[in-house]
Amino acid sequence: MASSSASDAIASPQGSHKQRLLFMGLKRSGKSSIINVVLYKLPPTETVFIPTTIVIKKHALYSYRNFQIWDLPGQIDFLETNFDTESVFASAGAMVWILDAQDEYLDSVARLTETILQLQQMYPDIKYSVFIHKVDSLGSDFREDTVRDIIQRIMDDLNDAGLENPPVSFYPTSVYDDSIYEALSKVLQLLNPQLATFEALLNTLAGSCKMQKLYLFDVLSKLYIASDTSPVDMAGYSLCSDYIDTIMDLSEIYIWERGRLKDVDEHVNGEDDKAPIKAEDGGAESFIRGIRGYSLYLKEMNKVLALIGFSKEPRFGAEKNVIDRNAQVFQDAVSAVLELA
């Protein structure tokens, strides 16, 4: 019976040319809520009305590269012997397991470790991330203990099964704050073959412009595809996220229309998929000082990517001309990288 349900869940394997990210986990763990909040800007308070996913839902993120995000129903065992795992996992670059931290999580931990162990044998290149989700509902002390316990259990189970140094990352998340954007940004970076190049360019720019932190954001989703390698400042990150909303809304009124996020099923064969968008001149640019002690700088690279950073340097604004010139050099470099992609 499970086999029949699993077979019915696959609408179509087409579109496998895209870089695929799989969302997995037990049912009602929050997979669809995350996708709807991040990709479609659904208010988090309305996620309680999302129906349970019973078939694979395919979503597309058109950015500098074209990504697919597949939402897999939690009640189906996609690794059972009668199921065509090739159609789901062969083109997957990364898998995110959503684990509900406010529920009894032992079953989810067991299912996750079983899934990783089986996939590692068949598809060793898949990268794994675990979103320890809904942590906002836990008290601060209990939250830390819960996160630590979950990580320890998963790593112990994988090590006991003989999997040394498993390629698994862990992120406490909630749809009610920026933690979900930070976590999903890190996951998408696993699918970015130009990540090291972008990081090197951002490190150089941050040093020359005295930036405390620099990001290269996808403006449609507010996920960042790369950043310099300095530690993340979540207060500054939240400001950047809000800043993007404001500037991009204004730029859409006065400059150009952007693409959109949509279900892959609308164009399942991918015949009219957009090609990766190259960098170009023009676009929105903004600079602002004195926001909670931060100075913010934004410059669009193209219709989907924007450079944004912040600094606490008091003379940051006085050197804006230098920053503009360096940002233009960075934009040219981004253009060259995208043309080679």
Can you walk me through this structure?
The strands form 2 sheets. Strands 6-5-4-1-3-2-9 form a 7-stranded mixed sheet, sandwiched between helices. Strands 8-7-12-11-10 form a 5-stranded antiparallel sheet. It contains 9 helices and 12 strands. The chain is globular. α4 packs parallel to α5. With 341 residues, the chain is of the alpha/beta class.
Main sheet: strand order = 6-5-4-1-3-2-9
Q: What's the helix count? A: 9
Give the percentage of residues in beta strands.
Answer: 15-25%
Oligomer: single chain
User: What is the element string, with H for helices and E for strands?
Assistant: HEHEEHEHEHEHHEEHEEEEH
Radius of gyration, in Å, reads 21 Å
Per DSSP E runs of 2 or more residues, the count of β-strands stands at 12
Give the overall average pLDDT.
86
Basic shape: globular
Instruction: Give the helix level as a range of percent.
Output: 25-40%
Which parts are unreliable, with pLDDT below 50 for 5 consecutive residues or more?
Answer: 1-18, 266-277
Q: Please identify the structural class as seen in this structure.
A: alpha/beta
Distance between the termini: 44 Å
The profile of the biggest β sheet is: 7 strands, mixed
